[in-house]
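Re: that chain you flagged

S.,

Sorry for the slow reply, it's been a week of failed gels. I finally had a moment to sit down with the sequence you sent. For the record, here it is as I used it:
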Amino acid sequence: MSAFTALEQSGSQASLRLCLGKFLVECQDVSKALWRNNDRKLGKSFRSAFSISGNSPLSPAAFSGLKAVIKGIEKEKTTGVEKSPRGKREKDVQEESTDQEKMAAFSYDKGTGLLTFHGENYEILSLFLAVRNLYASLPFFEELQVCSERLEINPQDATALFQKAVLMYKARRFETALQLTAQVLIIAPDDHRVWYNRGVILSEMGRLEEAIEAYDRTIELEPAFEVAWDNKGVALARLGRFEESLDTYENILLKYPGYAEAWAGKGSVLSSLGREEEAFEAYSSALRIRPDYLEALASAGSLLSRLGRFEEALINYDKALQFAPTEPRLWAARGFALSEGGKQEEALQSCNRALELKPGFVPALETKVKILSEIRRQKARASQ
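Prediction finished late last night. Pasting the structure tokens below so you have them in one place:
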């Protein structure tokens, strides 16, 4: 992974070749571990646990062409040894010609992840994604292995498929998680939990229309599954369908008026619609149910700041910081409210705290610049 990052950041052709060689050697080692000639059973077990198919970019068949690239780069390294000063002067013209030939034979497009080596094209980006997916799955190896062992005994084990889909989601391997969820639905088409998980995965992938369909199916199967209503409202809002989102929240609140998340969601939608006072009432309802609800406190604080009610905003931010004292977003927002309320020194302290927690945090930096400018203006006026 670090080798690929270095490859993307490399500048010169020589540096590019060096980083590429290192990256490909690492990938080759991974390929050998997954397709073990000395222990095929173990290799198969690894591939099964990590859901690595036979047509993976890491497979020996897919990787075979890249071996020529590795050998070519290694050959360049061994033939490109440092020459003596005298020999170097004598070979200047030949070396310049050789370097030009190497550059012509080798190119890498960072935008597409396409490598060209002696006229042959190779997909490097797909190789990186395959390695990234593998590394992301490593923390869940033992659990994935248990699921795979169960599926080897019974490929129709819906529970094992469901659990494996959840693990792949945690590893952010959304395509694989979605495929596994589809397999579960063939076996258990009326399980509302599976439909809900499908909606969550699709939302993460940005496929919001399909996610809404999955949430609708979840609600149809289990109307009391509150979080599906909430997620549907969020997906509709992300699509800009605020009125439909508002209807969704109002429907669930008629049935479950004590659902704090729905009140907060309703508040966000009302805020987007410009109905600020109603939005504040919705956030207040959420906080009456859950006084420690961090997102509702932060959202209410932000809304109050926009309304110019800075003292009230500070009360919300201070409450939120009791529950999340290391959240830079809250410190930056507090700094903004203090600055707008004319308390520049306190505001500066809040922004500095945000930047201690997260150096380079843009909202805190922007507010800090504004605060420092205001402090300078105040000092200039005082000195006149």
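What I noticed first: The chain has four domains: 2-80+99-134, 154-223, 233-290, 292-384.

Talk soon,
D.
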